[in-house]
Amino acid sequence: MATIITEECINCGVCEPECPNEAIDDGTKGGVDIYWIDADLCTECVGFHGEEACQEVCPVDCCIPDVDKKETEEELLEKAVKIHADQDFPALEELTNETSLFRNPERKNADL
Ligand code: SF4
Ligand code: SF4
Questions:
Q1: Burial class (CB in 10 A: 0-12, 13-18, 19+), 77
Q2: 3-state DSSP call for residue 37?
Q3: Angstrom distance (rounded) from CA 76 to CA 26
Q4: Ligand 1 centroid to residue 3 C-alpha, Å
Q5: Pocket of ligand 2 (CB under 6 A)
Q6: What's this model's pTM, rounded to 2 decimal places?
Q7: Does the domain at residues 1-106 carry the CATH identifier 1.10.3720.10?
Q8: What ligand 1 atom has the least distance to the C-alpha of 18?
Q9: Nearest residue (CA) to ligand 2, atom 4
Q10: How do strand 63-65 and strand 3-5 relate by DSSP bridges?
């Protein structure tokens, strides 16, 4: 699942610099008046963090999984590898609770 930003967004901008994939912008790219996530670039932070970095910093908890865009851990890791062709990532079986939300039951959106 890519992450989406809901209408509760207060346009604080705190999430934008936290995204490892530069998937978030102020809405200009998405044609909306709140912050927006490019689903093609969102990897749910797999390979980088054990939770959605945007949701971790969002003061109103409005970065949530898009249930209409379900992706597996393997697909998200492959996406990260493609986006960051110059970087090394752990193999799928080497991901941990610190590098994949799939392995982190403590994350904010674990119940979604
Ligand atoms: S979940 Fe991670 S990759 Fe997706 S938009 Fe948020 S910070 Fe970026
Ligand atoms: S941190 Fe939350 S409220 Fe602030 S811009 Fe990002 S999505 Fe909107």
A1: buried
A2: strand
A3: 23
A4: 6
A5: 5, 9-15, 35, 57-60, 62-63
A6: 0.94
A7: no
A8: 7
A9: 12
A10: antiparallel
68, amino acid identity = D
pLDDT tens-digit map of 23-44: 999 999 889 999 999 999 999 9
What backbone torsions phi and psi does residue 78 show, to the nearest 5 degrees? -60, -40
The closest of 28, 45, 53 to 89, measured between CA atoms, is 45
Tell me how far the alpha carbon of residue 82 is from its chain's centroid.
Answer: 15
Show me where the domains of the chain are located.
1-106
Cβ atoms of residues 18 and 53 within 8 Å: yes
Q: CB count, 10 Å around CB of 96?
A: 10
* Ligand 2 centroid from CA 93, angstroms: 32
Please determine, for residue 1, whether its predicted confidence score (pLDDT) is greater than 80: no
Please provide the size of the chain in residues.
112
78: which 2 tokens?
């492959």
- The H or E element that residue 65 is part of is strand 63-65
